[in-house]
Automatic annotation (TrEMBL):
It comes from Crotalus adamanteus. GO terms for cellular component: postsynaptic membrane. This is Neuronal acetylcholine receptor subunit beta-3. Residues 31-134 form the Neurotransmitter-gated ion-channel ligand-binding domain. Its main location: membrane. The chain crosses the membrane at residues 154-175, 280-301. Residues 214-297 form the Neurotransmitter-gated ion-channel transmembrane domain. GO terms for molecular function: acetylcholine-gated monoatomic cation-selective channel activity; transmembrane signaling receptor activity.
Length: 309
């Protein structure tokens, strides 16, 4: 938007001597008035009597010319007349002292001017130094009355979609690397849901149940106790003591093997849960991708078909 500053200069062409005398007298009075008004006048100081006084500015705007209309960027360039009125207490005089002069014209640069700021001014003087992919595509596609272009909506949808996929991937990887050393064993409802029910619905191969190990301690202890109640010879006592040590070693190895198997099975359970989650998010993202693309491009296809008809 452009503003036009106009200074009106009255020109008088006089042919008679009496008229020239009147003009000279008027010019002298106006010159004396200007000297009187601008003696010690500072345009940087507000023209008020008291510091707390407010200056009322009457603002007027009149369109003079329509220069250009950019439909694609929704930008309109115009020339306007800007009219501002206010009272300057420093510029007051008695007309009788200066030949009846009631109005004078002075340059606006010599006066105090109110600071008028036009918000959302699209004057085109601010240029973007970085052009992103969306703006490059927008320059290529035809003009549209929509606030956000179709390619912009689809690109925004893809950006949100990719962001969510990254978050979901991080979550699935976190579940995949869980173990009994970092997390407690999974809850029973998690086991029933992700290891038994959901794999059938997702057409996945069922998870293998944990192998049940026989407890060797239950078979060794009763037999050894029988030998203790009997009267044993010295040789037999040595054999029984050796068998007890052997049974303790077997029990220790059995507990260690069962513990390793339990840890390994917990890790496998969490990995299978991660596979189930990955399959669920795969179908979910596939459905959302198809539905989102259809919803975005359907209005454009309908407009294209109607325009073709």
């Amino acid at each position: 938007m452009r503003f036009l500053d106009v200074i009106k200069l009255p020109l008088l062409f006089c042919a008679h001597g009496s008229a020239f005398t009147v003009f000279s007298s008027f010019a002298e009075n106006e010159d004396a008035l200007l000297r009187h008004l601008f003696r010690g006048y500072q345009k940087w100081i507000r023209p008020v009597k008291h510091a707390n006084d407010t200056i009322k500015v009457y603002f007027g705007l009149k369109i003079s010319q329509l220069v250009d209309v950019d439909e694609k960027n929704q930008l309109m360039t115009t020339n306007v007349w800007l009219k501002q009125e206010w009272i300057d207490h420093k510029l007051c005089w008695n007309p009788e002292d200066y030949g009846g002069i009631t109005a004078i014209r002075v340059p606006s640069e010599s006066l105090w001017l109110p600071d008028i700021v036009l918000f959302e001014n699209a004057d085109g003087r601010f240029e973007v130094s970085l052009t992103v992919f969306l703006l490059v595509i927008e320059e290529i596609i035809p003009s549209s009355s929509k606030v956000i272009p179709l390619i912009g909506e689809y690109l925004l949808f893809i950006m949100i979609f990719v962001t969510l996929s990254i978050i979901v991937t991080i979550f699935v990887i976190n579940v995949h690397h869980r173990s009994s050393a970092t997390y407690h064993p999974m809850a029973p409802w998690v086991r029933r849901l992700f290891l038994q029910k959901l794999p059938r619905l997702l057409f996945m191969k069922g998870h293998v149940d944990r192998c049940a190990f026989a407890d060797p301690e239950g078979t060794l202890k009763p037999k050894l106790r029988k030998y203790k109640h009997k009267q044993l010879k010295d040789g037999e006592k040595v054999v029984v003591a050796f068998l007890e040590k052997t049974a303790d070693s077997i029990r220790y190895i059995s507990r260690h093997v069962k513990k390793e198997h339990f840890i390994r099975q917990v890790v496998q359970d969490w990995k299978f849960v991660a596979q189930v989650l990955d399959r669920i998010f795969l179908w979910l993202f596939l459905v959302v991708s198809v539905i989102g693309s259809v919803l975005i491009f359907t209005p454009a296809l309908e407009m294209w078909f109607h325009s073709g008809l």
